[in-house]
Specification:
The structure is a homotrimer of 233-residue chains. Helix content of chain A is 32%, strand content 24%.
């Protein structure tokens, strides 16, 4: 049983609203956790998202296996989820486009990560939907790949993503935080963010970066202000 | 002799004005045709183009072969063409820049695809010229590569592009459609587009994606509304 | 001792203010010099920079080597420098982010090149800071790599960058020009720029590209207008 105090889902999401992936990743580093999804890029400039992972996994089909309908898994995805869809790394056909984008927005899904290619990027940008993928390409997944499973653990860029992981995505990429660690990661990330703001302010006041980092304990940026003061007293 | 009814060039281009590469690619899939140019990306956000391919092929030169002038093939390119220029995949020198962009706009050339690198991207963006390439780099092609041939078939990302192919390029990439299939591909793509809009509208009306796709025959989205009604009656 | 007349630093920077990397690279080609940094991309659309290289080199650390503070080299970087930081090509952790961006702007550093990954791209874009890198990723360099040396020669994309090299970076990428050649490269680049503008104007006046390039000696675009006139007379 974890000793970490869990905060509820909505509070976790609200707490991440202004946290970037950089601070969250630094917090995970401080706990020895791995969260970054290497090679997945923001496709809509400025569009970030936060939510719990609904995972989807595709597999290749043999040519001549007959027609396969497109997957309708999105009917089962709850509001505020982040869809994490692995075609595992395949960029020569696409598993996301305008229909899914419209449905996702209608269902208030928070955003989508595609380990593969996405299409209809102009539409996605016009609608401002937070889409993250490895590539852009127009060739359909239909009859090239098929849905293998939903709500199973995935490996993206070498990092594990499990159903229900807290996902945060922005201009620096996407991270996955296991639920059991999410409260503590978010708490530490807020301290990291505060430490970074303090350092920037101190440099603005004339300190060197070395002085500012020493003053604000950049060696342990996840410490709360109180813990830093205790350490100094 | 093809049984497909050919429509004329201007009508084909006009018919593609509001078609995206996604719908055209799905129409090609339904006919067993391959059109996507893998790895070629839109360089000017929002800039799409439609036209018939004028193909250009470069080859490497040996160091010390003496000076070679830049190629002037663009003098022969007709208005409304899409230049498709292969340096085949080489991204360490550039075969497109500001001079060619200015000339292309002056000649009302529709757009350019570079299987290689392009430069002067700021200028190209400022002028809003539809440029698609594999990379961006400033080092000139002069004395590194030379014009090998124009108006010959090319292979780009594994897909054949022949002179006169109908090219459509947008945020999802570039596709090449052989002239003999173009009328039928465009006809089917309009049906695909209509099917997709119907699905989006039905989901907006409260249907699940599964229901909407079944209702609008997403298993055969290229069927006309009339053919779908005949199948239901 | 070089026979080239050196102009002073501020004059060199001012002379590059409106020169793009394409013209400078063509000038370097005419002198047999290599300057392009292959694979380094502009991260902030429209943001270019000019300055003298301050070089930084990172190296990997062994896991379990204990905590290492982030590097504070930026305290020593002079105003108007371009930071050229090599993590050599490694894109799975980042050596640039929001703190360094704020410090760099405060110190009037001209821009930054990262041969590796950078993070906090939304912030960097909002601040309009000229950042160039191989990738975007959020995972910190702390405890993954450490500062190895500053102000040593680097190899980026196969091209040498030495401390004090004149760096120019724009939408086509980044180039490094050795100080001993900088005056002559800049002089020739202005002639290239003039030649290109003359060609564009002549095509606008109705000449073919072939005619315009012949008229304005595109075989030797780095010649001054006077040298071209002497050659014609």
């Amino acid at each position: 049983m974890s000793a970490v105090i869990q905060i509820d889902e909505q509070a976790l999401i609200a707490a991440c609203e202004h946290l970037d992936t950089a601070c969250l990743s630094d917090a995970m580093d401080s706990m020895g956790l791995d969260g970054g999804l290497l090679g997945i890029d923001q496709q809509v400039p400025g569009a970030r998202c936060v939510g719990f992972a609904y995972t989807v996994c595709y597999e290749s089909v043999e040519v001549g296996d007959g027609f396969r309908n497109a997957a309708n898994y999105i009917d089962d995805v709850p509001a505020n989820a982040v869809i994490v869809s692995s075609n595992p790394g395949r960029t020569d056909c696409t598993t996301w486009g305008d229909i899914l984008t419209h449905v996702a927005i209608g269902k208030q899904i928070a955003g989508t990560i595609i380990d593969g290619a996405a299409r209809d990027i102009d539409t996605v940008r016009r609608l401002g939907y937070p889409l993250f993928s490895r590539a852009r390409y127009m060739k359909s997944a239909k009859n090239r790949v098929q849905l293998k499973a939903v709500q199973v653990p995935l490996s993206i860029g070498g990092t594990r993503v499990a159903p229900g992981d807290l996902m945060v995505c922005d201009s620096s990429g996407c991270i996955a935080i296991a639920r059991e660690h999410a409260s503590e990661v978010v708490r530490r990330a807020h301290a990291v963010e505060r430490t970074e703001q303090d350092i920037i302010a101190s440099v603005g006041d004339g300190l060197s970066l070395k002085q500012a980092r020493a003053l604000h304990r950049y060696d342990q940026p996840w410490l709360s202000t109180e813990a830093k003061q205790r350490a100094l007293s």
